[in-house]
């Protein structure tokens, strides 16, 4: 019945049902215990052993995955259970073969694909699996399948949980607890008003009787008797089919209307039930008043969720619970075995949906996110007890085979992350302080009397637990060493001596590295999944992408194009660099896999990255990655569509992360993160495959940590494959010398050279005033002029403002310069390298539309990559087309951080964070710049003795002085550098009155404010006024301004009207007004008429905003509030005054401000 698909690969040997094949004089354990096969309609159809093939001498090769075809009767289906050499039990779901034979067409055929892990031998060297896998085909009858097909998983779970609890004599609700010898007796009862009671709340698959009965073997109940007497109660509830919020509603409903004073002990998921009852008052309303909380102890609470609850990992979640119950038979999982058995039916039936009770514990889910938001609990009420369990070899090997090792990105107790036990809410308030934390295991403050480790299921049999609980409930000091809740616990997923894997070979002339094991403290350690890097010409290259001065604390990933199986190599050798397409016509012409090489701390691993699906296989994540990437490109190129929503960007980031960090690479990454403790991890990504390199990996989102890597967790930079060492540029003292070269028209219309310099210097003004940079401006840059400037070797940084072009056919990139007549001069990569490289430059910032795009035929053919590959130490380029006005904030904060002596990696992270918080909502702007660096720890300046604080936005000192003492501060932002003399105009407006203080500021325009579906008459997209105003609302707080006035040369619209030139909100929210000069061709860059226009439209906006009034279409046309529907320029430039109706209204509404507004109308006439 069970057959290996490939003849000559795995050897399949049938074994008698009911016992395993004998070998070596001993009988192996059954493949699947009977307790997991008790569901109705489930039976064993076949048993076999699968012996791996002998793998050839090709170094680094492992066994192929086990592919089993199974024939069943029509209507039947099944699940394949595999017992691994480690003892791990895994379950696998089958799919129909792509092309069954005629014989099989009469049967129900399933194909099971089992990934096989490389295992270690006694010598510690990595080799192929050496022992046979034991398999069992678990058949599910047609009758059983028909009962679940078409029924949503939540309904199935509720029916199963109701039936199972009834069979075990259990029921939901409140119970009085009486401790007996070794047990707890539960009888109906609830806490009453006016008396202090103790309440137990249990976790998943459990009930309070089983969860807490181990406490009867300690002195716990004797210690708390003076506090509660007989007033001890338990709340039992369904944990699979109901959400914690639903459980909490039941808990509160069962309490007396007058309320009850309760101290609470929770275990595992019970902590979420209890916290919902206490903290989610918006959901539970007046019911929440019934729980009058005293003290609470959260034992192993998944406050930040648990990766075991991730809905995408159904089969692995079921498998891990099965393994836990085998390894830890003394567990409180009352219905755990029944769950595994029933889950086999659900898996076989491909039932869709989520289990509400488990799904709520997903760290990336809505419930956990909502629970971790304010309001938090009362202070000094919660205590936390957790365990940091370091798995022994047996448990670890099982975890590797099940795939569960990738679930935990930090310390854990085999079920939930340890540190999540004390992380309550995310508002920065320490609700669980160090003196209220108890932690077993490494990094903790508790140890057991017998020296044994504590897991998720055996807290309550420990006397140490009883002592901690009793002291916490009594409000007594724990007298333990304080646990710092901000310091990560040590993670021992990699706990064995590193043997058989040589350290990464350093580049010639570099400093030798120290192996990871040699640097660790405590017991010798090793990597259980480290494999030697395969040799050969194609795989020798990664040594050339490692930084010149090897830093063992830097995590490197290199994606190589030589990972397809040997039998595919010849068929794909001619198309290694082709980009995947949606069409499947050339499926056999491109590689199916890439190889991912990772190194950290002297350890190195490799794994495969699947690039395309084979016939009958599930699609890879690359399809959605490519679609989202193209969608963002289409929008930022101002072609069509919209940007992805916040949730879509998180999903996109999750796909990027899960694609990049797989298998051994993920494990090494998690180890690196745990070893860094409070330090940020330096991360360098290099791809030899162009179409992979061009994807926006900066958006990678770690669901386990619920964060985008590039802003919260690591210093994210990129590198390129090259054999040319980077220029060694010593860090300098004093300000950064920046050459700003502009090779595109600046501002609105034709500006003089002096005007262009003035406009360009605006964005650097705060840095100049702080003494952090000195700026030379080169407007209308020609190749010869920039060559002449750089040949002096005086500059540290070149900031290029211009355009980049890219020829998709040739894979050639170019930067556009000007000629002496203002025409365009494209400069190819070779010429760009000759001008910029070997000039003593530490950094080039290419603020050009397409300068970050790599070549399709060869990665190093992109302009950015060409410069880095020829020795430039660091470079920043945009990976999406953006306006210069959208890159201002990143550049300002990046340069500020570099000038403070921060590293390139640190500076990039700080700049991304600044862009991210500077505008309302979640944007993509922070990830647009790509930072290339050989060494993320490179610094451009010596660290300064005094730290300068960069303003959230650029405000000139002269403007700030002018607004001091003014009742109303107006920040003015010239988005598109329309008016080069705007500061002088604002100074005259300040001098004309003493109410409004105008100050010139600079910031970045968000990328998502364009309407690409509706376009102006010249084809340009409209600026959406409401969207821009909403995104900039937080800026007024940072600027300490009452209102932000924006000036743009783009066409503008609101929800109702096109071609607006003035916009302000109703009811002064958000405090943003906007003026668009699009279409006013007679408006000059500067001059008396221009000053008058600026004063007039400013008065119009301020009167409308503060007066909370609109414009009028009838009446005097020289009134500032006249609608001017025909957009007559003469109206803007004419002398204006308020008509009688408007003046009367404003005098009543703005008695102090009206004289100042009228003075502004007269000042610039």
What does this structure look like?
Helix content is 28%, strand content 21%. It is of the alpha/beta class. β20 (593-600) and β21 (603-610) form a beta hairpin. α9 (314-327) runs antiparallel to α10. Mean pLDDT is 80; it is low at 19-29, 56-62, 99-106, 119-129, 493-550, 563-588 and 855-861.
Task: Give the key terms.
Rossmann fold; 5 domains; alpha/beta; 42 strands; single chain; 8-stranded mixed sheet; 1165 residues
Give unreliable regions as ranges.
19-29, 56-62, 99-106, 119-129, 493-550, 563-588, 855-861
The secondary structure category is alpha/beta
Rounded radius of gyration (Å): 34 Å
- Biggest sheet character: 8 strands, mixed
Instruction: List the total number of helices.
Output: 36
Work out the number of β strands.
42
**Large-scale geometry:** globular
**Strand arrangement, major sheet:** 12-11-14-13-15-16-17-18
Spell out the CATH superfamily of the largest domain: Alpha/Beta hydrolase fold, catalytic domain
What percentage of the residues does DSSP assign to strands (E)? 15-25%
Identify the CATH class of the largest domain: Alpha Beta
Distance between the termini: 96 Å
Mean pLDDT: 80
């Amino acid at each position: 019945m069970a057959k290996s698909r490939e003849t000559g690969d795995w050897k399949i040997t049938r074994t008698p049902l009911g016992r395993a094949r004998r070998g070596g004089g001993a009988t192996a354990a059954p493949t699947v215990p009977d307790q997991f096969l008790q569901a109705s309609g489930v039976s064993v159809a076949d048993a076999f052993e699968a012996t791996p093939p002998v793998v050839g001498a090709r170094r680094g090769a492992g066994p192929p995955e086990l592919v089993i075809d199974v024939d069943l009767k029509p209507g039947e289906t099944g699940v394949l259970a595999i017992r691994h050499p480690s003892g791990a039990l895994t379950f696998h779901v089958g799919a129909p073969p792509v092309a069954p034979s005629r014989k099989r067409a009469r049967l129900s055929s399933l194909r099971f694909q089992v990934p096989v892990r490389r295992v270690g031998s006694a010598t510690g060297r990595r080799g192929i699996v050496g022992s046979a896998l034991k398999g069992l085909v678990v058949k599910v009858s047609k009758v059983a399948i028909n009962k679940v097909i078409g029924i949503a998983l939540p309904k199935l779970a509720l029916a199963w949980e109701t039936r199972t609890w009834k069979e075990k004599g259990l029921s939901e609700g409140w119970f009085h607890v009486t401790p007996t010898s070794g047990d707890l007796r539960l009888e109906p009862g609830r806490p009453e008003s006016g008396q202090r009671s103790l309440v137990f709340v249990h976790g998943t698959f459990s009930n309070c009787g089983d969860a807490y009965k181990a406490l009867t073997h300690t002195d716990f109940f004797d210690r708390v008797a003076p506090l509660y007497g007989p007033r001890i109660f338990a709340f039992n509830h369904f944990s699979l089919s109901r959400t914690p919020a639903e459980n909490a509603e039941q808990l509160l409903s069962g309490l007396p209307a007058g309320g009850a004073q309760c101290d609470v002990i929770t275990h595992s998921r019970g902590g979420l039930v209890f916290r919902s009852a206490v903290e989610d008052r918006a959901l539970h309303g007046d019911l929440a008043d019934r729980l009058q909380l005293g003290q609470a102890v959260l034992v192993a609470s998944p406050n930040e969720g648990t990766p075991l609850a991730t809905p995408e990992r159904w089969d692995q979640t079921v498998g891990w619970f099965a393994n836990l119950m085998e390894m830890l038979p003394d567990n409180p999982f009352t219905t755990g075995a029944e769950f595994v058995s029933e889950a086999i039916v659900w898996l076989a039936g491909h039932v869709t949906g989520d289990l509400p009770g488990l799904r709520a514990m997903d760290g990336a889910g809505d419930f956990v996110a909502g629970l971790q938001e304010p309001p938090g609990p009362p202070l000094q009420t919660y205590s936390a007890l957790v365990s940091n369990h370091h798995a022994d070899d047996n448990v670890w090997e099982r975890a590797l085979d099940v795939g569960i090792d990738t679930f935990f990105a930090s310390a854990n107790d085999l079920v939930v992350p340890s540190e999540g036990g004390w992380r309550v809410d995310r508002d920065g308030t320490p609700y669980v302080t160090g003196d209220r934390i108890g932690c077993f295991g490494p990094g903790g403050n508790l140890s057991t009397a017998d020296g044994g480790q504590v897991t998720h299921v055996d807290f309550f049999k420990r006397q140490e637990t009883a002592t901690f609980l009793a002291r916490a409930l009594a409000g007594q000091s724990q007298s333990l060493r304080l646990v710092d809740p901000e310091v990560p616990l040590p993670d021992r997923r990699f706990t064995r001596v590193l043997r058989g894997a040589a350290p990464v070979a350093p580049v010639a002339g570099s400093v030798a590295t120290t192996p990871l094991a040699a640097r660790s403290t405590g017991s010798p350690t090793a990597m259980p999944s480290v494999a030697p890097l395969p040799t050969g010409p194609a795989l020798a290259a990664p040594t050339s992408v490692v930084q010149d001065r090897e830093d063992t604390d830097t995590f490197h990933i290199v994606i190589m194009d030589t990972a397809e199986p040997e039998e595919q190599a010849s068929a794909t050798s001619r198309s290694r660099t082709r980009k995947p397409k949606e069409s499947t016509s050339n499926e056999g012409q491109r590689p199916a896999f890439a190889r991912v090489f990772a190194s950290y701390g002297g350890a190195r691993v490799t794994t495969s990255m699947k690039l395309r699906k084979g016939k009958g296989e599930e699609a890879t994540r690359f399809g959605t990655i490519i679609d989202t990437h193209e969608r963002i490109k289409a929008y930022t190129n101002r072609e069509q569509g919209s940007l992805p929503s916040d949730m879509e960007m998180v999903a996109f980031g999750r796909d990027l992360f899960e694609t990049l960090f797989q298998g051994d690479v993920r494990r090494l990454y998690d180890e690196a993160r745990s070893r860094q403790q409070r330090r940020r991890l330096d991360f360098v990504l290099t791809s030899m495959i162009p179409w992979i390199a061009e994807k926006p990996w900066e958006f990678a989102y770690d669901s386990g940590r619920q964060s985008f890597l590039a802003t919260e967790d690591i210093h994210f930079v990129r590198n390129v494959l090259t054999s040319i060492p980077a220029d060694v540029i010593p860090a300098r003292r004093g300000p950064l010398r920046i050459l700003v070269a502009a090779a595109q028209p600046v501002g609105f219309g034709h500006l003089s050279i002096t005007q262009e310099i003035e406009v360009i210097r605006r964005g650097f003004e705060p840095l100049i005033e702080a003494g952090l940079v000195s700026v030379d401006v080169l407007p209308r840059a020609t190749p010869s002029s920039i060559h002449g400037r750089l040949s002096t070797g005086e500059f540290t940084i070149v900031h290029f403002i211009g355009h980049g072009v890219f020829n998709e056919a040739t894979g050639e990139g170019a930067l556009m310069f000007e000629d002496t007549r203002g025409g365009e001069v494209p400069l190819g990569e070779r010429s760009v390298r000759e001008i910029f490289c070997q000039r003593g430059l530490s950094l080039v910032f290419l603020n050009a539309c397409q300068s970050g795009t790599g070549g399709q035929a060869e990665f190093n053919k992109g302009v950015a990559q060409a410069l880095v590959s020829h020795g430039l130490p660091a470079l920043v380029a945009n990976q999406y087309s953006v306006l210069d006005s959208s890159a201002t904030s990143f550049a300002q904060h990046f340069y500020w951080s570099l000038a403070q002596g921060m590293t390139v990696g640190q500076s990039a992270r700080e700049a991304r964070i600044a862009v991210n918080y500077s505008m309302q909502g979640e944007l993509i702007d922070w990830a647009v710049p790509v930072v290339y660096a050989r060494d993320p720890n490179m610094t451009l300046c010596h660290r300064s003795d005094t730290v300068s604080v960069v303003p959230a936005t650029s405000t000139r000192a002269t403007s700030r002085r002018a607004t001091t003492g003014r009742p109303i501060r107006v920040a003015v932002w010239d988005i598109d550098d329309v008016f080069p003399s705007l500061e002088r105009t604002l100074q005259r407006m300040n001098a004309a009155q003493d109410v409004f203080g105008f100050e010139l500021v600079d910031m970045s325009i968000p990328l998502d404010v364009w309407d690409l579906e509706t376009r102006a008459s010249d084809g340009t997209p409209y600026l959406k006024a409401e969207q821009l105003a909403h995104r900039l609302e937080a800026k007024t707080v940072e600027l300490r301004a009452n209102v932000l006035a924006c000036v743009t040369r783009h066409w503008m619209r609101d929800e109702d009207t096109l071609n607006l030139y003035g916009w302000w909100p109703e009811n002064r929210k958000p405090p943003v007004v906007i003026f668009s000069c699009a279409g006013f061709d007679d408006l000059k860059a500067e001059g008396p008429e221009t000053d008058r226009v600026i004063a007039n439209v400013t008065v119009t906006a301020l009167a409308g905003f503060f007066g909370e009034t609109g414009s009028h279409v009838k009446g005097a046309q020289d009134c500032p509030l006249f609608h001017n529907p025909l957009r007559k320029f003469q109206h803007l430039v004419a002398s204006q005054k308020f008509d009688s109706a408007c003046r009367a209204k404003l005098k009543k509404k703005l008695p102090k401000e009206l004289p100042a507004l009228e003075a502004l109308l007269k000042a610039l006439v």
